[in-house]
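Comment thread on ticket #2218

A.B. wrote:
> Attaching the input chain for the structure job we discussed in standup.
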Amino acid sequence: MIVDVRLPSPLVELTGDERLTGRGLRMLVKRDDLIHPEVPGNKWRKLHLNLRAAAEAGHQVLLTFGGAYSNHLRATAAAGRLMGLATVGVVRGDELARRPLNPSLARAAADGMRLHFLDRATYRRKDEPEVLAALLERFGPAYVVPEGGSNALAAQGCVALGEELRGTADVVGVACGTGGTLAGLAAGLGPGQRAIGFPVLKGGGFLREDIGRLQEAAFGGRRGDWHLEERFHHGGYARRTPALDAFAEDFGARHGFVPDPVYVAKMLHGLFSLAAEGAFAEGTVLAAVVTGRPSG
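C.D. wrote:
> Ran it. Output below, let me know if you need it in another format.
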């Protein structure tokens, strides 16, 4: 497995923020982004059991899916290089429109990932047997990891995140793209703790069913106390607003790192907004999971 993994990830308290102290709240920050420099945060947690399963089954190739700016593709490419596995990344969108490669895809390619582009219509059908069979026929036998890395093994791999937070906070916030991290996090929390997922996609309520299916596959049924807050997507995946940018810059000035705008800033903005609305009782301890690298 990947070496030099930093576990448990650091847990630090935000200090001197009157938006919290004025309401009798505390906030801890779970720096999962510091787990590993190349496979950080929830990427490592979701991948490591899949990597073990691939190795135990004798696979030499990992095949996975993602958009043109996918952190998952980049992390899978790095993990494959570190473990001596070949990687194939099936990318949503036409190839000509993606040349030259953006920094995320260029990093994945530099780590040895073979990129294969699918038009959007075909990509939407990527889970259909005939589409997957055509990919495996082209690239040979491979261990298939779903988009975003979220499957039953990913959810099981994220249980440790919840366990590391047992006894530390009443409410834990995490950004949601595919729901795998929330599925495992909630299962690992202790009695009396609850998790809030903040979808980064517009209309992210569909994740309730996806998370339910993941927990059914991983644990045999729903686990933990969790719900979704859908108001803080700021226009949709990878979209941002002046209000979000201002919040992230202010947070960085106060606390030493600027959260990434795609995932973490939206989750933090959601937690601070809920606090301002009086959603948390005085004395509540909040924890915010930093799942990806800070901006810059």
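A.B. wrote:
> Thanks. Noting for the ticket: The first helix runs from residue 18 to 21.
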